[in-house]
């Protein structure tokens, strides 16, 4: 169910009207539903059930501390890709022993810090990284738990920028070379082999690519067993796609049942790194219409949210629904919703049929994932506030950025 519903012509988040949120906190603002985050996380945890394993929320999709803390309290693990994300998890009360560290470019200092706090596993993306990881572990008199991220050469059928499992992508180790690389890992003093990992892409709305990848991983696990290498966990990477418009991704329970069936009675624990399917439909970007600019060719509505707040439409041609917060009578027209930034690509939606006037509030839907977390200060625009709603109560989870916040750390030349 959606926690963003219309009641008597007004859009609500849980039991609070979005108009009330805008009145109190201003716009643009990201507004999240606590219940939606909870429900989406529990869908994974419950589908995993008693099978050994972990649901490691991919914090890159939405890394607000309040959200991480909420998920930590529900028992989530975390998938991180930087030292910064590691510190976020720790400050939010996440358990180091439930963290997996992904990404192609982990620095020595990031690796050292992750070893120091005792993370669960490093998802290693290259042979060069394997060598460095072993060296850093030896220097710190410890052993790093590793999983190799393999590239199973499966087409995820998603946008090319978020497709990662093909041979031409920068991610992972070619599955053909994996046995050799595992043997190397086994010989290195600072490493202990634990798992096998893959992530073939994001916003996948069909099961087939996941299951094809799994078949290839299981074959590899058998090959490795013959070489005396035991894999104890399988990490299947990011989660399912979501409905932005009319996509119909499978239910998490169906996805998980299909995986468990393929595993049969192999003694493998399962890790998942879902981001979008937990956060996307748990948040909206609330914005106000500033100016209407009808022209001969196009009707532009200038809104106070821009590509610095949500870059997805500009970067991936992503479509996100845009709904009025209060339905108004009057003639609907077709509008391009554009932001104040000096770029033609600064739009949040095109050709949307809406009845709007300046001062009206709009909600950009499905904005909880890769929205705020990809936002920037382009055009020296402060980043939006983030609000978490629980029932009829709103909590300021991140303050709107001020000019001082943005200019902190910049220095004039001495003379
Ligand atoms: N694990 C790894 C190693 C990943 O690279 C990603 C996403 C995930 C997990 C989480 O995938 P998810 O469950 O969210 O599909 N900014 C793009 C999406 C980039 C995805 C990057 N990696 C967007 O806004 O569509």
UniProtKB/TrEMBL annotation:
Cofactor(s) in the UniProt record: pyridoxal 5'-phosphate
Residue sites binding pyridoxal 5'-phosphate per the record: 239, 273-276, 370
Catalytic site: 342
Domain named Orn/DAP/Arg decarboxylase 2 N-terminal: residues: 37-280
Domain Orn/DAP/Arg decarboxylase 2 C-terminal: 30-368
Modified residues (N6-(pyridoxal phosphate)lysine): 60
E.C. number(s) listed in UniProt: 4.1.1.20
GO biological process: lysine biosynthetic process via diaminopimelate
Record-listed substrate binding positions: 276, 312, 316, 343, 370
Pathway, per record: Amino-acid biosynthesis; L-lysine biosynthesis via DAP pathway; L-lysine from DL-2,6-diaminopimelate: step 1/1
Subunit structure: Homodimer.
Family indicated by similarity: Belongs to the Orn/Lys/Arg decarboxylase class-II family. LysA subfamily.
Task performed by this protein: Specifically catalyzes the decarboxylation of meso-diaminopimelate (meso-DAP) to L-lysine.
Record protein name field: Diaminopimelate decarboxylase
Source organism (scientific name): Cellvibrio polysaccharolyticus
Taxonomic lineage from the root: Bacteria, Pseudomonadati, Pseudomonadota, Gammaproteobacteria, Cellvibrionales
